[in-house]
């Protein structure tokens, strides 16, 4: 059996504010193989790492991310001393120490993410293997596949492994990313026999982590990377 990859969900969400540099550093210190993060484009065009479409839940501000400038976003506090990071800042922090699972959460993120990946591949020694780009959004997956079929895609689903599999075929994805509640030993095996990796989320309870290990998934995302 090959190694099951340990992936820090939004860094180490259970321990530090999600999607912050501190959270990613904590997960790196726990020895993760990968970091999962969520991206949106702000009004000045930069890619920022934040889960929601608004800043309301995770910062001391309010408003929609895509309508705010980077300066406005950077001025916000995330649970005290933390700030919203750009994707570039996270890539620089990770520095090829692990792979990045970039989730295209916001709309119109595929093009700028692919451009930034190309920049890090051309200038900073990254390779396509250092990235997996995932999304629930058909449009972003389609755009990403059309721009560059070399980019490794992961199809996110919380509804149906079968549908993820269909999209995986359509977009030549490397992986499916189903919620762990959708998985059985049998559907994991079938997906793997069809050539897809299975990366599952967000698995926090020890008994669920054990079950996913028994199913021999390829990677597990957790808010508690140390439990993996
Ligand atoms: O990428 C896996 C997982 O992060 C998807 O759901 O809502 O946590 O972004 P969510
Ligand atoms: Ca996510």
From TrEMBL:
BP-aspect Gene Ontology terms: lipid metabolic process
Domain of life according to the entry: Bacteria
Domain GP-PDE: 4-228
GO molecular function: phosphoric diester hydrolase activity
Cross-referenced InterPro entries: GP_PDE_dom, PLC-like_Pdiesterase_TIM-brl
Name of the protein in question: Glycerophosphodiester phosphodiesterase
Coiled coil: none
């Amino acid at each position: 059996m090959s190694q099951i990859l340990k992936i820090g969900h939004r860094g180490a969400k259970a321990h530090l504010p999600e999607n912050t540099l501190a959270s990613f550093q904590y997960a790196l210190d726990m020895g993760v193989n990968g970091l999962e993060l969520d991206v949106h484009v702000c009004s000045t065009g930069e890619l920022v790492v934040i889960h929601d479409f608004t800043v309301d839940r995770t910062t001391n501000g309010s408003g929609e991310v895509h309508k705010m400038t980077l300066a406005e976003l950077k001025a916000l506090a995330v649970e005290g001393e933390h700030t919203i990071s750009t994707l570039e800042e996270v890539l620089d922090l990770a520095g090829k120490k692990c792979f990045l699972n970039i989730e295209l959460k916001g709309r119109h993120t595929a093009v700028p993410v692919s451009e930034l990946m190309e920049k890090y591949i051309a200038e900073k020694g990254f390779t396509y293997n250092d990235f997996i780009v995932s999304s629930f959004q058909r449009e972003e997956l389609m755009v990403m596949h059309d721009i560059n079929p070399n980019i490794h895609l992961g199809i996110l689903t919380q509804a149906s492994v079968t549908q993820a599999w269909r999209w995986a075929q359509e977009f030549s994805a490397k992986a499916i990313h189903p919620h762990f509640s959708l998985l059985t030993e049998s559907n994991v095996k079938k997906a793997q026999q069809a050539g897809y990796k299975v990366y599952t989320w967000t698995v926090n309870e020890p008994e669920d982590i054990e079950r996913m290990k028994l199913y021999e998934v390829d990677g597990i995302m957790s808010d508690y990377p140390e439990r993996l």
